[in-house]
Structure formats: structure tokens, C-alpha cells
Amino acid sequence: MRRRQPGRRRHGRCRGLPRHQRERASGRARRCRQHARDGLDPARRPAGRRDLGGRPRAGAGSAPGLAVLDARAGGDVVIVRPAPLRTRPRVSVVIPCYNYGQFLPTAVGSVLDQAGLDVDVLIVDDASTDDSLDVAAALAAADDRVAVLAHERNAGHIATYNDGLAEVRGDYVVLLSADDAVPRNALTRAVTLMENHPGVGLVYGFPENFEDHLRDVPDVVRSWSVWSGQDWLERICRKGKNVIMSPEVVMRRAAWDEISSYDPRLPHAADMAIWLRTAQRWDIGRVNGPPQAFYRVHGENMHLTTYAGMITDLRERSLVFDLLLGAGSAAGTADAARLHAMARRALARTAVRLAVNEGIGADPDAPTDELADFARTLWPPVQRTREWQRYSRSARTDVVRPPKVTFAGRARTHLAWRQWRRYGT
């Protein structure tokens, strides 16, 4: 039996530490290894960085005197104790609507129920064929904070967004779909964060799904998260996915004015492009704790859960990264190229995982080959990954997934959801 050398520590530097400190040290080491794999300097900090346009940043800028609860290892996010709202800002809410007249009263009523804010609402009707325009007119007649802009001909959702947002006059801007809603004081919570952090251009939170009835949400904020825009952008590129569903977003008017419009080249991912473009110029904040929006689930907005929607979503996410970070983009710097490569790698691996998950189920409609082709074209080295090996095995034989494999996949999905629910990325 091999004897341990005298004085040699079996657990290295972590020996004798409490469990939570060992886990924290292990997490730091894991992040350093991940940074090394991505070609990053593990010791770098966001303070004093420059954004992709070269302008000096304030880091995760905060108003002086705010209590920092936790500065995470690596400096990529600062957890801050919430502070009170000392001003009364104006928030402009744009509600685009096409044949969603039945949902309009809920959406409008929810945004008007916000303490400490001056809220104005603009409903943009895109030539609806139902009674949407009549419902909007009745809401405007009942409350002078509500106005209506009506299209004579249907212009499509991107043009409708841009027409409404061109009319905003508030200090902060919200785009809310007519079938969604926000909890009481959700806008107040988001605006309070930005009023206390003048470097933050966009705030989001957790969007809760609902079908018919809105539930009461406790108006208690656990904490605020504040990222430097560059660090948040890097997180998104590493995951290759959109972590924001849209109704939970509040933007600073100055940040929106720098972007000015949704991109018609991205009919299914224009919102993701807005978030990433904002992160190139501003810091990003999140309200942790209560839901910040209610996302209505119904048959007409389930398109991205179908197989065709799955492929469309991946392709449009790839196009977003190409337009914002690719060689011909305005941010064509060395750092942008690194983030672009990181995002393409993440998307390719996501596509292969989907091919494996959908293909082993023996569903003849599952687009496994199309997903694999997308991944191989986007990032050829994906063929050397474990995900690709699993895909190759599933493609060669009619594999029946063992129960333990199914359970492991569901567990990974649930853990990823829990992380997104709590931390926002």
C-alpha cells in the first residue's frame, strides 16, 4: 500500500476550510480553467475596460454610497443591495397590437399600475381585422395617459415596433406585446435600479409564464445584479442564446436613442440584437427576486417550440452574432472576433445537442440531419466533440434511450433553468 509522504496535503490549499469556502475556491478554479480554454486571462477585471467602440467604461458603474453585497470571483457581476427611488421619472410604454384586442385591457392596465412613476402608453394598431382598434380607442378615452396610433395598412411587427418607439418621450422606454403584461410595480423596480446606477442602459428580470389570470407578486426585491456590458456580452456569447424574453425589459431612453430601431433583417431575433447592441455601449442590470413580466402562453406564440421554429431560431441567433461581431460589423475588433468565434462554437454545440435529444426519440419529423449540418457548417471542429460522437452513434443505429440517460438530460435542463431563473444568464 502506497504511503502518503509526510507533510503532504491531501486536499491542497482547501484542506481545513469550511465547505462553503472549499466550494467557492473550486468555483474560482473552474472559471479560470474555462477562461484558459477560451483564451482569456483568468485574472483580468472589468474595471477601466473599454467597450467595443473604444470608449472608456465605468465598469459595473454604481452611484456612490450603494452597498455591494457580493462581488463575484472574476469581477463579472456585482450584487448590490437595492436602494430607494428618490425621483419621479417618466416611462413611455409602446404596445404593438395586431388582432389581440381581447388582451389589450390586461396589458394596458398592468403598466399603469406602477407606483412612483409617470407612465404614458401608446398603442400601435397594425391594421387589425378584429375589434382591436375599437378596444384601444375605448382605453384611450377612459384614461388620458393612453394614446393610439393606427396603421391604415398592415406593416408587420418590426415596422410597428419602430413606428411606436419613434414617438416615445419618457426617460425610460418599454416595448410590451399586447398579449403580455407586467406585475404591479415591476417598472418601478427596474427604473429604481437605473436611477441609482446611471451607467446601466437596460434592466431585465425573470418573466413568468401565464395563460389566463395574473397572480399577485410580492413587491420584495432580493438584490440587484449589475454587469459591465462587455462581461454580460461575453456571457451571452459563451452560451450562444438569448436569455431575455422581451416583456421584462426596461431601457434607458438615452440607450435606446443610440440604437433607434429594430433591424428588419432579423424578424425573429431583432430583440436579441437590441440587447447585445446595448451591452456594447452600456452596463446591464437585473432585478433579482419577483417576476418582472408575465409572458402569455397560447397557440399563436408557440412557433419556436416546433421543429421548424427550432432551426429558425438557431439561424437567426447566428445572424445576430454575425451582424454585431462579424468581420464586416462596426465592432470589427480583435475582441469582437474572439466573441464571435465563441458564439459560433456555442451555437454549433447547441445544435448537436438538439440533434441528439430529438433524434434518439425515434421521431421521423425530428430535423436531426439539418441540425447537424447547421452545426458542422457553423463550426467544423464540432465533429471532434463528445456531442458529435453521441449524434453519430444515434444516427447509425435505432437507439432507445435508457431511463437514466433521459433523467440526466432532464436534470441538466432543469439545472440550467434554475440558474437562469435565479441569476439571469
Automatic annotation (TrEMBL):
SUPFAM superfamilies (UniProt xref): Nucleotide-diphospho-sugar transferases (SSF53448)
InterPro entries: Glyco_trans_2-like, Glycosyltransf_2, Nucleotide-diphossugar_trans
Composition skew (Basic and acidic residues), residue ranges: 35-54
Keyword terms of this UniProt record: Transferase
Region (Disordered): 1-63
Pfam families documented for this protein: Glycos_transf_2 (PF00535)
Domain of life: Bacteria
GO molecular function, a single term: transferase activity
Compositional bias annotation for Basic residues: 1-34
Protein name in UniProt: Glycosyl transferase family 2
Organism: Aeromicrobium chenweiae
